[in-house]
Amino acid sequence: MSSFQFDPENEPEGIDRVTLTDDESRTLECYIENALEAEDGTYILLMPVDIPVVILGWDNQENPEENQSDVLLVEDKLEITEIFADAKAVLAELELTLKFTAFTLTVEGQLPPLEEDDMLTLELDLEELDIQDKRLDSEELQFLASFYHKSQKYSIYTPLDPLLFLAKYNLLGEVSLVSPEDARMRPILEELLFDEMD
Fold first, then answer.
1. CA-to-CA distance for 147 and 98, rounded, in angstroms?
2. How far apart are the C-alpha atoms of 179 and 73, rounded to whole Å?
3. Of residues 105 and 198, which shows the higher confidence score?
4. SS3 letters across 125-145
């Protein structure tokens, strides 16, 4: 799949969107990338309208990027809430607006050009991370900014591969996320992905 480089100026017109909502009433607006009719409803492949980002915390303060065993993906909502203002401030310097959206943090704005020195390959612990596609064991990220909070170093990255969600419209017109790990969903997901790449 091609790298996700969202450009608001080239945003396609007429693409249907849906809004996902999490248990805490946060929302995430998504494009409908593909749809598949089934007996129990319509399955849809979704991609966030804004750019997904992740925040990494570094334990090794001297040369943090040199030892990936010292990096932690910040997923705890309380920790994200505590550092959110600092993260938002450093991204504002890049004219990016950080949003505490459902299911993933996102930024609105134009990403800086991708430089090879700004890339990080993060090895994923599939047993611990709740990610959408367990077939992936590593992820390439583009560096955006770093900041300190209470002497702890954090870095903000955006994944180079698109973040996709599998969801379903039920017969009542309600949208809900579906686990791609459900064996019954695998043929549906593969068909949605295959059609999208065509």
1. 14
2. 21
3. 105
4. CCCCCCCCCCCCCEEEEEEEE
Residues 28 and 20 sit within 8 Å (Cβ to Cβ): yes
Q: Which residues contact 193 (CB under 8 A, 6 or more apart)?
A: 34, 45, 164
CA distances, 48 to each of 2, 59, 74, 89, 174 (Å): 15, 30, 20, 22, 18
Q: Which two tokens stand for residue 17?
A: 């969107």
pTM value? 0.78
pLDDT digits (tens, 9 = 90+) for 125-163: 544 444 444 444 678 999 999 999 999 999 999 999 999
Nearest to 6 by CA among 158, 165, 139, 146: 158
CA dihedral 128, 130, 131, 134 (to 10 degrees): 60
Q: C-alpha 111: how far from its chain's center?
A: 14
CB 81 within 8 A of CB 87: no
Residue 64 near residue 58 (C-beta atoms within 8 A): yes
Asked if 71 and 59 count as a contact pair (C-beta separation under 8 A), the reply is yes
Contacts with 170 (C-beta within 8 Å, 6 or more apart), sequence order? 40, 41, 176
